[in-house]
Amino acid sequence: MSTKKTSKPSIKQSQGSAIAGAFVIIASSGENCKMGMEQESEWNAAQSIEISEDLVAAAKLQLKFLAAVDRNRWLYEDQTLQRAIYRYNSCWLPLLAKHSESRVTNGPLVVPLDCEWVWHCHRLNPVRYKSDCEEFYGRILDNCNVASSVEEISREETEEIWNAMYPDEPYDINSTRSDRVPENVNGSENYTKYNLVLAIKRQIPFYYQVSRPHMNTDQFLEAAVARYKGFLHLIKRNKERSITCFCVPTYDIDLIWHTHQLHPASYSNDLMKSLGKILEHDDTDQNRGKGQKLDIGFSKTIKQWEALFGSRYWKAGAMYRGSTPSPLTVTPFIPKLIGKEVTAHNKFQKLIDLPESHVIEVVLEFVEIENLPETYKKRVCVHFSKAQPDGIFDVKRKLNIQSEFGRKQVATFQCKPTGKLFFELVSDSTSDLLLPEPVKTLGYGSIALEDLVSDLSVEKWLDLVPRSDTISSDPVRLKVAASCTVPIPAPHVLKIARTSRLSKSFVTQVTDGNGNEIIGLQMREMKELIGITKEGEKVIGQLIESEWSLMDSLWTLKVQKMLLTGPHTVKLIPGRKLDYEPKHHERKTNIHNFMTAVEFSAEYPYGRAIALLDVNSGDLMVQEAWFVLPGLMLAFIFLNISRKETEFMAEEAVFKATVDKDKLASGGCGSGCGGGCGNMVNSGGCGSGCGGGCGNMVNSGGCGSGCGGGCGNTISSGGCGAGCGGGCGGCGGGCGNMVNSSGCGAGCGGGCGGCGGGCGNMVKSGCCGGCGGGCGGCGGGCGGSTMKSGCLDNITGGPSSDEQPMQVAAHA
Predict the structure, then answer these.
(1) d(Cα 738, Cα 280) in Å, to the nearest integer?
(2) Both ends of the chain: CA-CA distance in Å?
(3) Is pLDDT above 60 for 561?
(4) R_g of the chain computed on alpha carbons
(5) Kind and range of the H or E element at 113?
(6) In what order do the strands lie in the sheet with 441-448?
(7) How far apart are CA 74 and CA 605, in angstroms?
(8) Handedness of CA 409, 412, 418, 424 (dihedral sign)
(9) pLDDT by residue (tens digit) across 117-143?
(10) Structural domain 358-489, CATH architecture
(11) C-alpha–C-alpha distance, residues 781 and 761, integer Å
(12) Count of CB atoms within 10 A of residue 161's CB?
C-alpha cells in the first residue's frame, strides 16, 4: 500500500452522520416545517440546561492530565495501581476531607499525580463516588480549591501539609518505587469496596480516542458542550415518556460528560436540577458486536436523536478510532538532547520550501430526496467528489440516499478545507458500492467547504441543477448532512524516485504530491550526501566512521541503529507502527514494506510516529515540518543501503551458480561445517560448528565457532564472533552484509528481514554485542531496539497485533 495521501472514503452502512452546534434545517413542506419548528424548540430547550462549570476549559485540563498519565504508564500497571489506590484511600481522601471542612492551605491543594489518577476514575462512577464519600466522610468531597497535578501551581504548601500528616509516605512516587502495600488495608472501614483497579483499566484506552489535535480546540469543544446538553435533554425526554433506552454517547459528548463528572458537587446539583436524578455513567459494557447491548443502544440513540432534534448524531472526529495501537516498548525513553545551533537548521531548511496546507475529516450523508420522477424511484444514488481535486481527496465515490436505500450509509474521508464538495444525482441499477458508469445524470449541486468549516456542520436541502436535456416542473431536492473537524496541518507527502543518471552516479529526484521537483539527492561513494537545487549543489551529509553527520553536524545518524539524534531523537523502525498501524480494514497491507520514523522525547517517552516510508514506492509521508529534510536524508540513506544489499544478493546468486565449476582458494573449513564453506576468496576459514555455511566472503577474517545460519556477503570484515544464530532474510541472515565492519559480537541472534536480519546493515561499524534476532523490513536484531538504561536497544520491527479488546465510550 502506498503512502500517497489520496483519501479513500470509508463508506459505512450504519446510522447516520453527526452535527453539532446551531440547529440548521431548511424544511420543504408545511408538515416538515411544523416538525422542524418542534425539533428546533427541543434543541433550544436542550441548550437552556444550566451547567455550573466552564466545561470547555475543564475539558482542556482533562486532556492535559490524561496526556500526563499516558507519559507515565507505570500508572497502568497492577502493582503501582495497588499502591496508588492505597495512597488515595489512606492519604489523599482524608487530606481532601480535612481541606474541604477547613482549608489547610492558603492556595489550592495540589493532588499528587498517582492519587489524581485514582480519584479521576473513582469520580467517573458518580453514583458510587457520592455514596462512598457520604458513607465515609458524610458529604461529597468536591474538587473546589483543589488544583490538578498538571497545573502550573506551586505544590510547596501541599507537600508540607502532606509530610506533616504522613511522614512515612512521600508526596510523590514514581515507577522506581517498589514499596509494598500494607496487607491490612482492604479491611479498613474507610476504604471503598468499589473495584478501582478494574475501573482504572476500563479508562486507560479512553485517551487514545480523544487525543487528536482537533479535540483540544475551542470550536470543537463548544460544539461538544452543545451536543452534551442535547444528550442530557434526550435522556430527560425518555424519562418523561417512560422510554427505556441505553443511551450511548459519541466521544465528543463523552469527553464533556467525563469533564462534568470530575466536578462531583456541580454534576450532582446540575443533574438533579435538569433531570431530577444523578445520571449514572456505565462503562462496563465493551462488546461492540452486532446485536450486542452497545450496538443496540447506539442505534436507538441515533434514531431518538434524529427524531427529537432533526440533526445527525454521527460526528466527524468523534467516532470510535479502533483499538489503541500496539506499544513499541513498556519502558519509557527520554533522550538527553544536546543544544544545536539553530542557524544551521535555518540555513539547510531553506533548501526545501514546502507550503503549509491543512486537512479536515468529513462525515457525509444523503438523508432524503424530493420531487424525484417515479421512473427513478429506488434507482438513484449520489456521486460525490471535490469540485477541484486537492491532492488529498482526488477520487469520486458513490453513496446511497437513506430514504431510497432504506438504511443509512455514511462516508468518512479527508480533504483540504477549501473549494466545494460536488454532488451528482445519477440513476443507478446496482447496489454495489464500487463506482459504476452512471446511467444518467439527473442533477447536480454543491456545498462550500468554507461554510461547513465555519460551523463544523451543515444540514440543508439543495435544489439540484438539472441537466440541460432534463425537463421537470419542480427541481429535484436533496437533503445533505455533513460534519467536519477543525482544520489541522496536513502531512507532507513526498516521492523519492531515481530519475536520471549523472556520470557513474544516480540523482534521486524528490517531488511533492503534485509532481513538483523539491530537491535532488545524490550519494557519492557512500561517503557524501549531496543536495541539488536550482541554486546549485550542497554537501548535506558526510559519513564519518560508522555515523553520518548531517546538515553541518546538526544531526547525527547512527546507521546500525537507524537512530537520528540532534534537536530531536528519531528512530526508523520496520513496519507500520503507532498511529500508522493498519486497522482491520487495512489488514491486506504488507506492513513489512514500510518503515516508521518514531520520535522520542520528554513529551513522547513511548514514541510518536512522525513519518511513514513506503520502501517499494519511495513515498514518504511526514507529519512535522522540521522533519522534512532530515526525514528525506534518513529515508534516502536507508534506501541506498537496501539497494546495495539487493545488488549484493544478486551477485551472490551468480556466484553460487558457478561454484561447482570453479573452486576458489579457501583457508579451510574447520570441524563440524554442516553446510559447506564454498565461494570464499582469500578467507581465513570457517571455524568449528558452522551449521549453514560461510559462503561468499571476500578478504574476511573468517566465521567464528557456532555460526548457525551463515555470515555471508561480508567484505573486509573482522569476522563474525561466536554464537551467530541462523537467519532467513532477503539480504542475508545472521551477521551478513557488513561492509568494513570490525565484526559482530557474541550472541547475535538470527533474523528474518527484508534488509538483513540479525546484525545486518552495518557500514563501518564497531561491534554489535548481544544482538537479538528480529523479523522486520530493515534488520531485526540490532536494527531496532527496546529502551532501557537511557538508550534505545532491541526495538524490533516484529508484527504488531490488533487483537485487543475493543474499548467503548461510556454510556447511560
Answers:
(1) 63
(2) 40
(3) yes
(4) 31
(5) helix 113-123
(6) 397-399, 380-386, 420-427, 441-448
(7) 12
(8) negative
(9) 999 999 999 999 999 999 999 999 999
(10) Sandwich (2.60)
(11) 11
(12) 16
